[in-house]
Design a protein that fits this description.
seven-stranded mixed β-sheet, five-stranded antiparallel β-sheet, Rossmann fold, 380 residues, single chain
């Protein structure tokens, strides 16, 4: 087995990893690369981890976002409307009702599922999204769309309320993005967003959070530091009600003073040393029994499988039945689900998700898979 990763004091690199920006019915690829390297460093002034794409990586990412493809968007076909989608929609509605804004924008609106939800409660929202995918859905559902990347200059007048879901973790130079949102708001305006909570993975050195799309990996501390630097005040960061997420609300108020306790030690400190240990442990596990294992939650297992050069030798499983039979770019086997397990009680499973580990383990045990055949990055 050839080691396909490198960890130093201030960065981590996997030399080749599936660029899973879509799920498709075949392994046929578009002109966008199926696999790319990934390198992660620490943005120390804000205490978060940052993916550092090359120019060619950014070209691939921009092409992916502009194409008419489902790049992880929440939509009626994603199987997430009633779970994750429902939780973020209720969060946005609660904040909109609390502030009663008139001029509302959603950055990165995708298929417009939140726009439609808020419209059903009497609020009009203009979407901002550069993709052909979003343009298709705006025509289908009839919502107003600025079909471009967010730019404060493209808004007509200042906004009362700007929100986004699964955008903050995707934006390069997120400190500049935060400042642009601040500039686009009126005094007293609200910035509201949901984003990934990477705290648990950062603390233990877990690399399952690595994605080419997720260029930023945050803790609560890093979000406070970023928003304060942009000028926001009255910042609230709370855990989301589904999955490992943050729900964030911040105000533009030039007269309010606010500081954040910055003497606390960095959350990212020691991450690379811990990740080095996890990668060594997974390499030993894979060499011993991992190649005969199935891997549950594909997006969380892919970084570990890539670290040992596995791009299709093992089965991938997921609880989302809408993903069943689909292929992730760069991986040659389709995704399976528990109905495919049949009576293979001798199977072994590696659960890639720390967030849903206990829930998945329980479902595997109902299928007759014993404790001794269920693994995670914490147990190997």
């Amino acid at each position: 087995m050839t080691q396909r990763w490198n960890v130093q004091q201030d960065y981590l690199e996997i030399t080749e990893m599936p660029f899973y920006w879509r799920l498709s019915d075949t392994t046929e690829q578009s002109r966008i690369p199926a696999r790319m390297p990934i390198t992660v460093t620490c943005r120390e002034e804000y205490d978060y981890l940052e993916f550092c794409p090359t120019d060619s990586d950014w070209c691939a990412l921009n092409d992916a976002y502009r194409q008419n493809a489902n790049i992880g968007f929440v939509n009626p076909e994603s199987g997430q409307i009633e779970t994750y989608g429902s939780s973020v929609n209720q969060f946005f509605l609660d904040v909109v009702v609390a502030y009663s804004p008139e001029k509302i924008y959603e950055i990165g609106c995708g298929a417009g599922f939140s726009i439609e939800f808020l419209k059903g409660h009497g609020f009009n929202v203009t979407g901002i999204d550069p993709s052909e995918y979003s343009l298709k859905w705006s025509k289908k559902l009839g919502f107003d769309l600025l079909n471009e990347f967010f730019d404060e200059q493209s808004l007509t007048g200042k906004a009362d309320f700007i929100y986004c879901n699964d955008v903050f973790e995707h934006v390069p130079k997120v400190d500049q993005f935060s400042k642009a949102v601040y500039a686009a708001l009126k005094h007293g305006g609200v910035f509201c967003f949901a984003t990934t909570n990477s705290t648990q993975s950062i603390r233990v050195g877990d690399i399952s959070m690595l994605e080419h799309q997720h260029v930023n990996m945050f803790t609560e501390r890093s979000i406070h530091l970023l928003l304060l630097n942009a000028g926001f005040r009255d910042i609230k960061v709370i855990p989301g009600s589904y999955g490992n997420t943050f729900h964030v609300v911040a105000l533009k108020n030039e007269t309010m003073k606010q500081t954040y306790e910055n003497s606390k030690s960095m959350e990212c400190e020691g991450f690379f040393e811990k990740a080095h240990q996890k990668l060594i442990a997974f390499g030993s596990f894979y060499e011993k029994i991992g190649s005969s294992c199935s891997y549950y939650v594909p997006l969380r297992c892919i970084p570990y499988l890539a670290s040992v050069g596995c791009f299709g030798e093992c089965d991938l499983y997921d609880s989302n039945l809408s993903w069943r039979g689909k292929y992730i770019d760069g991986y040659t086997r389709p995704i399976k689900s528990l109905p495919d397990l049949k009576s293979e009680v001798k199977s072994r499973f590696f659960i890639g998700s720390l967030t849903f580990h206990d829930e998945i383990k329980k479902s595997l045990k109902t299928q007759g898979i014993g404790d001794e055949r269920i693994y995670s990055i914490s147990s190997i």
